[in-house]
Amino acid sequence: MNDIAHLKSWIGRTETIEDIASPVPLAGLAALLDHEVPPWTDGEVPPLGHWLYFLNRARQSAIDVDGHPKRGGFLPPIALPRRMWAGSRIEFLAPIAIGAKIARRSIIAGIEAKTGASGEMIFLTVHHEIASGGGVAIREEQDIVFRGVPKSSETSKPGEPTPKAERTRTITPDITQLFRFSALTFNAHRIHYDRDYALGVEGYPGLVVQGPYTAMLLMDLALRHGARPARFAFRARRPHFEGRLLNLCAAGGRLWSTDEAGQVGMTAEILPSP
Q1: Rounded to whole angstroms, how far apart are CA atoms 243 and 257?
Q2: Residue 148 — very low, low, confident or very high, per pLDDT cuts 50/70/90?
Q3: How many domains are contained in the chain?
């Protein structure tokens, strides 16, 4: 059982990381998304490209059994095995030039305990501000959920209705794609590459497709059709898995992903620049 009062003492804790908006990870992202010429503005970091910077720099001795840094530093020591990036709300305020110095200031904004089908859940909210050229370029509010391993009898709830898709793209994420995205983001979470761990410890039916990879695929679908986002929000509904169909869908500014059974994995929304 987690001591929620102790965990709440992390609220207000801050962290600042500096980086350079190098073109190297963006070239890797373009290759992963299968672009010869990516649909991005030349000389600028594309929407969501900031996720390729400010990477985890924890020493190997500080890595926990799940592949994440041990909790208790910037993030509180939440004693639940599953960790998922549940969603974000992002404002793109100004372009970031490739090669520019960038800095991200993060603050623990909220911690909330709830009870679900798998038992205790802890919701963590982190605010990020990314500055470049003397001003704030991106604001992001990120939700992270920690939970236990669900019981084998747990069933999925019905998904929310979606409109008729105007644009679709279907891929089948394989282990190579998951590896390449984890490499781009320096993400060592074992559910994305260690099948024995994913099934035996965290109770998944297969390797898990990274939530931010699905979000980037949805953003990429919009960019392929000329979107110029000013704001973007996504929410993970249920995981997608390696080797299974992943349908990317869009209707107006609404985006969503479904699996081969039509179950919604992620919903998102883009608001365009005026």
Answers
A1: 15
A2: confident
A3: 1
Residues 6+ apart with CB under 8 A from 235: 86, 87, 266, 267, 268
Structural domain for 258, as ranges: 4-272
Model-level pTM greater than 0.85?
A: yes
For residues 210 and 155, the model is more confident at 210
Tokens of 81: 């095995």
Question: Which pLDDT score is estimated for 25?
Answer: 97
**Residue burial 87-97, b: 16+ Cβ < 10 Å; e: rest:** bbebbbeebbe
CATH number, domain containing residue 58: 3.10.129.10
Judge contact between 265 and 236, C-beta under 8 A: yes
Vertex 265: Cα angle to 242 and 55 (nearest 5):
70
For residues 31 and 44, give the distance between their C-alpha atoms in angstroms, rounded to a whole number: 17
